[in-house]
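Data deposition worksheet. Section B asks for the primary sequence of the deposited chain exactly as it was used as input, without tags or linkers unless they were present during the calculation. Section C holds the resulting structure in token form. Section D is free text for depositor observations; keep each observation to a single sentence. Incomplete worksheets are returned to the depositor.
Section A, Depositor: J.P.
Section B:
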Amino acid sequence: MSSAVNGAMMKHSLLKDAAAANPGSVFPIWPSKDPPLMRSMVKAALLAALPIEVVNFWVVGYPAGSSGLSSASQSAALAMQWYLLHLPGIIATDRSPFLRAHSLPCSIVFFSAGYIDAAIVLAAIFWASRLALHTLRKLSSPMKHAH
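Section C:
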């Protein structure tokens, strides 16, 4: 039991030292160079999601309706991605009598849900591609021999 208490105290001490080294960080163990990189990735995802959602919402339109500006909403693949990106809005509209009765707030909910979901998907794609590139760089670099 004494070793468990000592281990816990040592872990707490290390976390406290890491938090002191990075005072503004939410994650005290996170290296100080990564949060700005993460913020830029999130900004890029938020910026790229806006035109995607504008095209998705106004050009493709609601796949089951006739309000789309083009016949692109008739494509099964586009309809599926539209439903997946706007699923939180569909659920909210289904649960709220107010949203079903008023088209403007309903459209705002659909646009917001699609925008947020598109940004999350893009951030995940950016993160996965950065991880893959980092892994490929590590695998392709010559190994240093330990002497």
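Section D:
The chain has two domains: 1-32, 33-140.
The helical segments are 2-21, 34-60, 76-85, 87-95, 97-101, 103-140.
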